[in-house]
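INPUT
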Amino acid sequence: MSFLSAQALVADDLADMERLLLKKVGSDYPPLTEALRGLVQSGGKRVRPTLVLLAARFHPPRERKRLLSLAAAVEALHTATLVHDDVVDGARMRRGRSTLNTRWTPASTIMAGDYLFARAAALAADTQNPRVIQLFANALSVIVDGELRQAFTARDWDQPKDAYYKRIYGKTAALFEVATRATAVLGEASAEAEEALRAYGYHLGMAFQIVDDILDFVADETTLGKPAGSDLRAGIITLPVYYFMQQPERRARLMALAEGDAHAQDAMGEMVRLVRESDAIAQAKAEAEMFAEKAITALEIFPPSPHHQALIDIARYVVAREF
Amino acid sequence: MSFLSAQALVADDLADMERLLLKKVGSDYPPLTEALRGLVQSGGKRVRPTLVLLAARFHPPRERKRLLSLAAAVEALHTATLVHDDVVDGARMRRGRSTLNTRWTPASTIMAGDYLFARAAALAADTQNPRVIQLFANALSVIVDGELRQAFTARDWDQPKDAYYKRIYGKTAALFEVATRATAVLGEASAEAEEALRAYGYHLGMAFQIVDDILDFVADETTLGKPAGSDLRAGIITLPVYYFMQQPERRARLMALAEGDAHAQDAMGEMVRLVRESDAIAQAKAEAEMFAEKAITALEIFPPSPHHQALIDIARYVVAREF
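OUTPUT
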C-alpha cells in the first residue's frame, strides 16, 4: 500500500481542507493572494494534514469544520516555515521549482512568510479549542527554536547526537507531533489515546527528517530539485555526517577537506561523496527505521481499522521513500 | 498630566507584565534568550500594554494572570513586527540604538522575529479565551497585510488617502484596536462597552501613526535616532506627503526631484525640506487631532474615573508628543 492509497481514505476531507486553505490565504491584495496560493499549491504531498485527518478517525471531533481548520493550520504553518527557511538559506530551488526568493525581494518574502504564519494562527484559532491553540503556539516556538539552533550550530562538527535530535525535533517532529496530538485533543480522546497519537506523530516526524537528511546525500539531483549534499555544504551536521565522524580517521579526512585550501576546488563535493559512499548512510537508515517502528508500536492500543492500517502504511512509506 | 503619570495608575500590573514578558521570551539557548531579552527591554514606552491594563479597569477580568498574558502578548507581537520591519527596511538604527540587524545576520534576525511571533502566540493562547485568540490572530493578518501593502505601494505617488489609512491601520491601529477590544472581551464587557473600547483603540492608533509620520519630517535626528524623512527616502507616501501633493505645482516640483538626474545630489534632502516647511504638516496634525478626539468621544459611555481620565490623557499626549 502506497502513501497515495493511505491518503485516499481521507480524500474528501483533504479536498475540503484544500479549499479552506486556499480561501484562508486570500488577502484583499491580489498579487499577494496569487503568490500565496501559488505557494500552498506548489506540490507538497500534504503529509501533515493527511495525518490529522486519519488520526481524527479514531475520535471524530463533533464539528468537522474545526477539524478541517486544524488540518489547514498545520499545512499553512508548514508552508510558512518553508518560506522563511528558503530566505534564511538563500535557497533558489525547492521541489525542483524556483523559490519565492528568486522572484521577490527578501523583504517581501519575509512578509509573505509572516502572512502565512498569521493565517496559520487564525486557522488554529478557528478550532475554538484553547488547548489545541496552546499546543499549536508552543509547537511554533519549538520550530523556530530548532531553526535558530541550526543556524547557531552550523559548522560545529562535534555536536552530540542529542543536539541533532533536538534540531530535527524542532525542524520536523514538533509539527508532526502537534498534528496528531491536537487532533486527539479536538476529538476529546482519553489521555491514553492522546499520548498514543502524540507518540506516533513524534516518532514519525523524527523518522521523516532522518530520511530527508539521508536523501540529501543519496537521491539524485533531479529528484531532489537541488544539489546533493546541500546540508553539508551549508555546514549543517545531519545524522549521516554524525555517524561518518565516529571513526577518527574518517573524521580527520573530512576535517582536512573542510579546512582545506582553495586548491581543493571541489572539497565539498568530495566530502559529500565520502559520506554518501560510507556505511554511515545505512546506520542512519537503521535509526530512521527504529523511529518508524516506535511510531507503529505507539498505535497498538487501537483496534485494527482501515485508518489504523493507513497510519502504519505511512510510517513504512516514510522510511522506504526515495524522494 | 503626562503619559508617565497616566501609566503610574497601573505601575504594579505593568511591572508584573514586564516580568512575565521576560520570562516568556526565554529559550533554552542562552545567546538567543539574551538577544531577545535585550530586544524587549530596548526602551519602548510600553504604550500598548498600558492601554490593556487601563482598559481592564472598566471590566476587570476574573483572572489577573490572563490579563497580564494579554498585555505581554500585545507587547511581544509589537516587538516581533519591529524586528522584521528593521530587516525589511534594512534599518540600522531604532530609538537611537543599533538594530539586531547590525549585529546578527539577516537570517538570524528573521528567526529571532519569528521566535517573538511564536511567543506572542503562546501568550495570547495563555488567555485561554478563544475569542481573544481569534481577534489576536486576525490582527496579526491585518498587520502583515499592512506591511506588504507598504512594500508593494512604495513610490506609487498618487495613492488615495484611503490607501494610506489602510496601511497605517495595519501598521499601528490594528494592534491598538485589538489591545483595548480584546481586554473588553476578556473582562466579559457588554457589546456596547467592547465597541467603545475598540473604537478608542482604533482611533488612538490612527492618531499615533499619523503623528509618527509627521515626526519623521519635523523631529530632529538625535531625537528620532535616524535620518529625518526616512519614510519619504524609502518611497513610503505618508499623510504629510499626500497633503503636499494636493497642490499641482507642489506635486510637479516633488516629482521633478524624485525623477531628477544624479546631478541633483541631495534631491531627497530637498524633498524632505519642502514637505517639512509646508502647511501639509499642519493639515496632517489637524487630522491626527481629529482621530484623538474621536478616541476620547468613544469613551463617553463610561462614567468618570481615574482610568477613564488616564485614557483621555494618553490620547492628548499622543498628538502633543514631540518624539
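end of record. Chain B touches chain A through 44 residues (CB under 8 Å).
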